[in-house]
Automatic annotation (TrEMBL):
Pfam families: Glycoamylase. Residues 228-475 form the Glycoamylase-like domain. Residues 507-523 have a biased composition (Basic and acidic residues). Residues 546-556 have a biased composition (Low complexity). InterPro entries: Glycoamylase-like_cons_dom, UCP028431. This is Glycoamylase-like domain-containing protein. Residues 490-556 are annotated as: Disordered. Residues 494-506 have a biased composition (Polar residues).
Length: 556
């Protein structure tokens, strides 16, 4: 149908459709597990320009979340647990967040600079000296990459199911380079931090994982070789390609970014009244932003769209909140101030009857609502909200306060918010983790490092842009962004200006852009005209699909 419309409609028809669509703001029905997005979207208030003052609660969240990293990290080797208090193994991604946390502690006066230098040096030296090789046991690294999970004491690969992870190595390296830029004093130990950080980054052989050039594989197993799936957009792996392109020793070519963004159109669309690059779980909209300030800088794709990745993440936060308000699956307590889907702990892998239907619940899993890869079992995570603070403070601040006021008695403890909770789950069955609170539902029992990290860093970025400003001084980050084609904003030399508007197009490029806009407009108009049936939960377990994020794999 759309092909015939495209052939017969002219510019006037296109404008009419665009005007019509702008008025209806209908969401697109999509799902891999449940068709959760077919309910009408809910209008949300526009972004407020003024920076909002943070209530005192946020200072308490910051301090407690910092203490998670400071208290639970092995002070003898710098390894940070994947989770606590169960604490079975270390996560290299958690270490990346911990290396970022220590300077935040210094700046807030929670520790002194010497303490931070001591802990950081211990960490970097341990990773520098960690045994490396292709053997399946007794090693912690290979080709400059590190295993996703390490033994908390030895640093060796934790078990045979653990992969040599490209994206988790990237998360570690973001923390390593952050340390390199923060410790800038002319003092022997800080100089050593900078030197070892450089050694670790230079050692990573990104090209080794390019089995399908120019893309980068998700990882490698000594038993079976390279993971067949590559990192393609859009998700948290933006930072991976920025790091890989900037490498002074093993760089990937700039066409890696071109191919990475080539799949963006598969996930660009309108969802819950917002038009953006969709990725269901919020961590995909947060992780790269922890260290990179994407405000005002654009690659070719975003330049054509007229926004930046920061604005894209803001729209993702609004879409998640609108989804929770619409609440198509009728979960308990979803609403204006109760939302937040990401990868998190959950109660159990089980099928249970909920409101007369069989619903699937999971333990650790990626959760999200969007154009693709949708799953929602009623489990919400505070990190999905607080990690979005810089994007949309006007909706994040009241939600954070409400979560503390309404659920804090059992959700807020020594290290801030526990990982997640599910007000709809009250089934008396054995649990994978967490506990049931009478009349309140399920609550996680652990803190997870990769969920704690965005909470702490994004509060710091909202207060004074601390993490962003430190990373802007790192030449590797700038080089990677520039190689990817980013321009504008803080990347421009002082006194230079670059337009953030789309560049002049040839006739063929204009025709292609018009055809794409027409197709998108027709799609949205058709959705507005075709009422979708109310969603029903699908009790069948979904077929195995491409893993979207090794950094968020189920915990064993």
């Amino acid at each position: 149908m759309f092909d015939s419309l495209r052939r017969n409609w002219g510019a006037a028809s296109l404008m009419a459709v665009l005007v019509f669509v702008a008025g209806c703001k209908q969401s697109e029905p999509t799902s891999q597990t449940y068709p959760v997005s077919s309910a009408p979207p809910v209008q949300v208030e526009p972004l407020k320009a003024a920076k909002l003052e943070l209530p005192p609660l946020f200072a308490d969240i910051e301090k407690r979340t910092f203490q998670f990293f400071w208290d639970t990290t092995n002070e003898n080797n710098g390894l940070t647990p994947d989770r606590y208090p169960s604490r079975p193994f270390a996560s290299i991604a958690s270490v990346g967040f911990a290396l970022t946390a220590y300077p935040i502690g210094v700046e807030n006066g929670w520790i002194n600079r010497n303490q931070a230098v001591d802990r950081t040096l211990v960490t970097l030296k341990f990773f520098r000296d960690l045994q490396s090789g292709p053997q399946d046991t007794g090693k912690g690294a290979y080709q400059g990459f590190y295993y996703h999970f390490l033994d908390m004491d030895t640093g060796h690969r934790y078990q045979s199911w653990v992969e040599l992870s490209s994206v988790d190595t990237a998360l570690l390296m973001m923390g390593v380079l952050f340390a390199q830029s923060y410790y800038d004093r002319d003092e022997p130990r800080e100089k050593q931090i900078r030197e070892i950080a450089d050694q670790l980054y230079r050692k990573v052989d990104w090209t080794w994982l390019q089995q399908n050039k120019p893309l980068i594989s998700m990882g490698w197993f000594p038993e079976s070789g390279f993971i067949k799936h590559d990192w393609t957009g859009y998700n948290e792996a933006m930072m991976l390609y920025v790091l890989a392109m900037a490498s002074p020793t093993h760089p990937v070519d700039a066409d890696a970014w071109t191919v990475w963004t080539r799949t963006y159109n598969d996930v660009w669309g309108v969802y819950q009244g917002e038009e953006f690059l969709a990725f269901g779980p919020m961590f995909g909209h947060q992780y790269s932003h922890v260290w990179i300030d994407f405000r005002g800088i654009q690659d070719d794709y975003m330049r054509e769209r007229g926004i930046d990745y920061f604005e894209n993440s803001r729209r993702a936060a609004y879409a998640q909140r609108a989804y929770a308000i619409a609440n198509p699956m009728k979960w308990e307590d979803y609403g204006h101030e109760t939302w937040g889907l990401t990868a998190s702990d959950g109660p159990q892998q089980t099928l249970q009857e909920y409101r007369g239907e069989q619903r699937q619940f999971r333990h650790y899993s990626a959760r999200g609502a969007g154009l693709r890869d949708t799953f929602d079992d009623g489990t919400l995570a505070p990190t999905a909200v607080i990690g979005s603070l810089p994007f949309a403070p006007e909706i994040v601040i009241p939600t954070t306060v409400a979560l503390h006021d309404r659920y804090g008695e059992y959700l807020y403890s020594s290290y801030g918010f526990l990982d997640s909770f599910n007000p709809s789950f009250g089934y008396d069955i054995p649990l994978k983790t967490g506990r049931l609170v009478p009349d309140k539902g399920w609550v996680a029992s652990d803190y997870i490092g990769i969920d704690q990290g965005p909470i702490l860093a994004m509060i710091a970025n909202y207060r004074n842009e601390f993490v962003w400003n430190v990373m802007k001084r790192n030449p590797y980050i700038r080089a990677g962004l520039e190689k990817a084609g980013f321009k504008g904003g803080w990347l421009q030399p002082q006194g230079d200006t670059v337009s953030t508007q789309p560049l002049p197009q040839t006739k063929s490029e204009k025709d292609a852009a018009n055809a794409r806009a027409l197709g998108e407009a027709e799609s949205r108009a058709a959705q507005a005209n075709d009422a979708q049936p109310a969603p029903k939960a699908n009790a069948e377990t979904p077929k195995p699909s491409k893993p979207s994020a090794p950094s968020k794999q189920p915990q064993q």
